[in-house]
Write a structure and sequence with these properties.
five-stranded antiparallel sheet; about 500 residues; binds adenosine-5'-diphosphate; Helix Hairpins; 13 helices; Heat Shock Protein 90; about 55% helix; Beta-Lactamase; five-stranded mixed sheet; alpha+beta
Amino acid sequence: LVIVPVVFSLFVAISSLATAPIVRPIDTSTERLAQALEPSLRKGVTPGELSPVLAQLIDGGAQLPLPVGQETEDIGEFVDLAGVRRITVLSTDRMVLASAGQEPLAVGQPLDETWQTEWRLTLDQAAASGCVSARPIDGPLPEAAACRMTAADGQVLGTLVVENNMDARFQFGAAIGRVLGITLFGASFTLLLALPVIVPVLLVALGIGALIARQISRRVERLTQAAGDVAAGNYARRVVVDREDELGRLSGDFNAMAAQLEEREQALEAEAARAEAALAANKRLVANVSHELRTPLTTLRGYVEVLEQEHGDRLPQRDLAIIHGEVDRLTGLIEDLFTLARAEAQQLPLVITAVAVKDVVAQVVEKLAPLAQRNRQIELIDATPPDMPAAQADQARLEQVLLNLVQNALRHTPAGGIVAIEAAPTPGGVAITVADTGLGIAPDELLLVFERFYRGDQSRARETGGAGLGLALARELAHAMGGDLHAESTLGRGSRFTITLRRA
Ligand code: ADP
């Protein structure tokens, strides 16, 4: 709105410099001025009398005796003196009668040598033919004009010389002034003219813009809400695709993405349900099988004992001992499996009471210390402090867990080592730790030791250890009593298994 009128006006202003130069031809103006001054000269003027009038003319207007028919007009209106530098009136004998403008000539004196030489040709021509204009050799613009002043009866009264302002600074300033003036005027005028059209168009455009913006922001808001719903897990959420534009396409893509997510979510849910069902079936199977095996195993053990008692002397003792050992092992395994299955199903009957930790530890140490010393030369130490608070636990199960942890420690500690049971109160509970100076467990193995049937050194463990159920069962029992079991270990330096329980 602003740039177009400004550029247009600027263009007009600059082109005006070419078509209407700052310094105009002054022939006509000089001729008119000569006519205007003629009555005064005819009357007879003293040297210098006309100078102030001429000065006023250069400054922009003065009343003079005017030619017939133009009495009332301001002389400035028909004598254009813009850009004039100096006006000089000479008498017939080339004496200066009046001079005004820049560097006026001395009045009452004959034209000095320099000007005589400079103006001779022009003045002679003017005297001969009325009006002439002098042009510089190197430019198209008139430098000066000279007009013979003649009375009505043909008497020559003198010569009028009007000189243009050829100063470059003046011309440049005037040019800039004109360009600025035209540009400002043109631009404001055009804008003013266009205002009655621009304002309603602007208002309508603003209104339409606001409407479109509101529509777009509503649609974006709907999309944002839908995205939030999907992010919150509502994969069935869709948006209405009501248009074929970019937002419409985005909405379509959004719906396709939500549909894919929904499909995947359903597939995952189905998969998880299948896995859960399989796990539950697996646990049921283990529970049922271990339960069903208990009775025949008990019967088997009974028969083996009867055979031993009644026909012991007639049967090979070594075979009997092997059968006995294997039946015992199988019974232990089935018992562990059965307990584990019931603990996992939260069906293990527990008697949770306030258990004196120190007493339980003392019993475990008492049970295992002599054997450890005799068979493995390992010292089993009770390192519980005397003022240990009681824990919430099932006493028999806690003892079972501790026995298991100590047996493991003894099994994995070389002869001459130490196994200690430590205990300490924790915020809101107690912690009992079985620490050994044994082989330790590698970090990657440490994550696996609580898995069912995991055995560290497979071949060695098969001969010496159990089936890899001990730690899985111990942790499950700790959970069932409202506590936890975790392990820390440094390979080659020993392990620490800590059971935490709630305080009674
Ligand atoms: P099992 O003793 O029947 O092999 P566990 O579940 O009790 O099964 O132990 C699993 C494995 O954890 C063991 O085979 C052994 O490799 C490792 N482990 C358990 N306790 C220790 C310990 N104190 N020091 C080193 N390794 C141990």
